[in-house]
Design brief:
Elements (H helix, E strand, L loop, with lengths): L1 E5 L2 E3 L21 E3 L1 H17 L2 E8 L4 H10 L3 E6 L6 H12 L6 E5 L10 H9 L3 E10 L4 E8 L2 E8 L2 E5 L11 H7 L4 E4 L30 H12 L5
Helix pairs in contact: 2-5, 3-4
The structure holds flavin-adenine dinucleotide.
């Protein structure tokens, strides 16, 4: 099986992100980057498929040289090699997907795993775009996955208030939901081996962004809470404030 896993290089969730001087992107100073948490499920899905059916797992990431560090995290989990699609300049979601699709189109992928969303820019677009660009089915937000020997598969998707079970056939793009599996922790041996695993650089064709960021801002600072009183006597005032000020009842 020729398995590709797309991973995104995102700020650590514990980092206090600041908007950069141009007001259009985050300030990278002091930011620690990690493998996008949803992509850990995608890597695990790729590794489990390889363990069941054989083949190899390639970690794919579009971005500047620094993303190699994130590719190596996937290699430390057990993937075989990396594919770095070199993009020093920001690309919109379409441009990122196009760079991946161009890099994969002649590599006979059996399956391309993604995370359900990249937690930095939250586009939720990649799996659909990639499926269309590679002319193969795409399934988003897979919470359960069962791939049969003949390549047919069923996936359970989380939908509002329930689940949906779908079926399709490989090759396909599948984006992973939290809970699809239990991602393994890289072992020390895996971390050491990852340093020697190959990462191929690919130059994507030049691309002009279709979407431009005009402004980026942080949410307004929440006002301090208000204590309206204590005990049953405070209920009347609380109801009045919820009705007249907050207008939620
Ligand atoms: C070099 C670079 C700089 C960027 N700078 C900015 C910026 O300044 N402002 C801004 O708003 N956006 C920026 N972006 C992000 C871009 O606009 C998209 O949001 C991003 O590439 C992913 O698209 P998405 O949010 O739709 O992904 P989603 O659809 O939310 O991600 C789903 C999945 O797609 C895969 N994926 C996502 N991104 C990548 C990737 N880069 N490589 C491989 N797989 C991936 C992962 O599996 C991820 O879980 C930048 C992107 C790149 C490559």
């Amino acid at each position: 099986m020729n398995i590709f896993v797309c991973v995104s290089h995102v700020p650590d969730t514990t980092t206090k992100v600041q908007v950069g001087g141009d007001g259009k992107a985050i300030d990278p100073a002091g930011v620690t980057y990690i493998l996008n948490p949803y992509d850990e499920y995608a890597v695990e899905a790729g590794l489990q498929l390889k363990e069941a059916r054989g083949g190899e797992v390639t970690i794919v990431c579009v971005g500047p040289d620094a993303v190699k560090e994130t590719i190596r995290k996937g290699l430390a989990m057990g993937a075989d090699k990396g594919l770095h699609v070199v993009a020093a300049e920001p690309r919109d979601s379409f441009g990122t997907a196009k760079a991946i699709a161009d890099a994969l189109k002649d590599r006979a992928a059996d399956v391309v795993f993604c995370g359900r969303q990249s937690i930095d820019y939250d586009g939720w677009q990649m799996s659909g775009l990639l499926g269309e660009m590679l002319s193969i089915p795409s399934v988003s937000v897979a919470a359960k996955l069962d791939i049969a020997e003949d390549g047919s598969f069923t996936a359970e998707r989380d939908i509002e208030g329930g689940q949906e079970t779908i079926t399709s056939k490989l090759p396909a793009v599948i984006s992973a939901q939290k809970g699809l599996n239990e991602p393994r922790y890289p072992k020390l041996q895996g971390i050491m081996q990852a340093k020697r695993k190959p990462i191929e650089d690919v130059e994507p064709v030049p691309y002009e962004n279709r979407v431009e960021v005009l402004e980026m801002s942080k949410p307004p600072i929440k006002e301090a809470g208000k204590i309206v009183g204590e005990g049953p006597d405070a209920v009347k005032e609380l109801v009045r404030l919820l009705h007249e000020e907050a207008k939620v009842i």
